[in-house]
Amino acid sequence: MKKILVTGGCGYIGSHTIVDLVQHGYEVISIDNNSRSSSRILEGVERIVGKSIKNYKVDLCNYDDTYAVIQENADLAGIIHFAAYKSVGESVEQPLLYFENNLLSLINLLKCVDEFKIPHFVFSSSCTVYGNPDIIPVTEETPPKPAESPYGYTKQMGEQIVSETIKHSVSTAILLRYFNPVGAHPSGLIGELPVGKPQNLVPAITQTAIGKIQQLTVFGTDYPTRDGSCVRDFIHVCDLAHAHTLALDYLISLKNFSPCEVYNLGTGNGVTVLEAIHAFERVSGQKLNYQLGPRRAGDVVAIYANNDKARDFLGWEANFSLDEMMKTAWQWEQNIRSDEDFYATQKGELN
Ligand code: WQD
Questions:
Q1: Distance of alpha carbon 318 from its chain centroid, rounded?
Q2: What are the residue ranges spanned by the domains of the chain?
Q3: What share of the chain is helix, strand, coil (3-state, %, to 5)?
Q4: Is residue 93 predicted with pLDDT exceeding 80?
Q5: pLDDT at site 25
Q6: How far is the CA of 256 from the centre of ligand 1 (A)?
Q7: Rounded CA separation 111/117 (Å)
Q8: Which of 237, 248, 245 is closest to 319 using CA atoms?
Q9: pLDDT for the residue numbered 344
Q10: pLDDT at residue 351, as a whole number
């Protein structure tokens, strides 16, 4: 059984990817220092897959500690690197925190990939590398534009670091550019656990609906779009997770045509913020308390993916509908309402 290291395995996309990997025959270990996640999430993962998942509570910015974990698992077939800070707003307030955490952790990992000749590396990137695209949908050949935030720069720089490093190694890599990950595993046992007040739209919707937030603000309804609100490509986290399994399968079976390839992971459907809110109201059967407010600095007006490449080369497609994204997100929000430990995470009181 091939063993895979998932960094950030207690995080939102990491935990869902562990489920998909195990269900497709991989053995998985995790590194997560739980600085922005709860180790309780792995309990949900273990209930879904029916086996225990080992997490090394290690800070990837500590090279010696990272080296020791990889040395102990030198038989790794691949690494999927999720662990990073991802708040656009926080990165604007604390750029050095983001450059140090997101880039040093990546560099330490890549040093270990080289040292132990780990065959394959999958990097968690983001559509944010495209900035405000002139033409949509964006393809992987759409030229990146200046990022809108230090977070976005860490993804652009991260892609360059992986690409340049892998070229001179015996390993192969894939860069996965996520659009907007939303929703939760249909079991209701794992999902997104934003720390503190959620910045992202869907957790802000579900927390408003459940009463944790008093009222949602729609950031801008004067954009040049069909209803004035921003357009995004929302993708269910389980569809996103499966793409990582397919990316590893692809690299392990040596189907890649270059040492480092890049793929968009979006549904190809542009949905406005107001349409997303109305989908939630339809699915939940309840009216959402929201107001129309001013634009949010740094927001991209409209972006959605051309995902032909992931379909043609990875054999990937998005299966979950927008309604299913909202339904699973709402189910998860209701499930954690009574769980104080998860609430502590959301209030930022991490263990
Ligand atoms: C989406 C739309 C907001 C909250 C960022 C990163 C991206 C990825 C996902 C990590 C925007 C509007 C939001 C609210 C609102 N990060 N909104 N009221 O900014 O598209 O993408 O998060 O994986 O890399 O760039 O996502 O969910 O924050 O915003 O109106 O309370 O919802 O203005 O138009 P974004 P988002």
A1: 15
A2: 3-346
A3: 40, 15, 40
A4: yes
A5: 98
A6: 32
A7: 10
A8: 237
A9: 62
A10: 42
Say which amino acid occupies 227. D
SS3 at position 278? helix
Structure confidence at residue 345 as a pLDDT band (50, 70, 90): low
Distance CA 330, CA 183 (A): 8
Query: Residue 221: helix, strand or coil by DSSP?
Result: coil
| Contact (Cβ atoms closer than 8 angstroms) between residue 291 and residue 218 | yes
Alpha-carbon gap, residue 282 to 279, rounded angstroms: 5
Mean pLDDT lowest among 145-149, 205-209, 275-279, 323-327? 145-149
Interatomic CA distance for residues 138 and 146, integer angstroms:
15
The pLDDT > 70 percentage for the chain reads: 96
Q: Determine if ligand 1 sits within 6 Å of the CB of residue 199.
A: yes
Catalytic residue from among 12, 26, 56, 151: 151
- CA 151 to ligand 1 centroid distance, Å: 13
Tokens of 45: 């993962």
φ, ψ dihedrals at 206, nearest 5°: -70, -35
Cβ atoms of 209 and 277 closer than 8 Å: no
Q: Is there an atom of ligand 1 within 6 Å of 128 CB?
A: yes
- Between the CA of 199 and the centroid of ligand 1 the distance, in Å, is 7
Confidence at residue 197, expressed as pLDDT on a 0 to 100 scale: 87
Contact of 175 with 162, CB cutoff 8 Å: yes
Q: Taking Cα atoms as reference points, which of 316, 340, 15, 346 lies closest to residue 185?
A: 15
79-83, 111-115, 302-306, 337-341, range with the lowest pLDDT? 337-341
67 carries an active-site annotation: no
279 lines ligand 1 (CB under 6 A): no
For residue 68, CA distances in Å to 64, 71, 208 come to 6, 5, 43
Share of the chain above pLDDT 90, in %: 89
Cβ-contact 229, 299 below 8 angstroms: no
Beta strand spans in 127-188 (E): 172-178, 180-182
pLDDT tens-digit readout, 202-256: 999 999 999 999 999 999 999 999 999 999 999 999 999 999 999 999 999 999 9
Question: What fold, for 3-346?
Answer: Rossmann fold (3.40.50)
Residue 270 half-sphere exposure toward CB, CA atoms < 13 A: 18
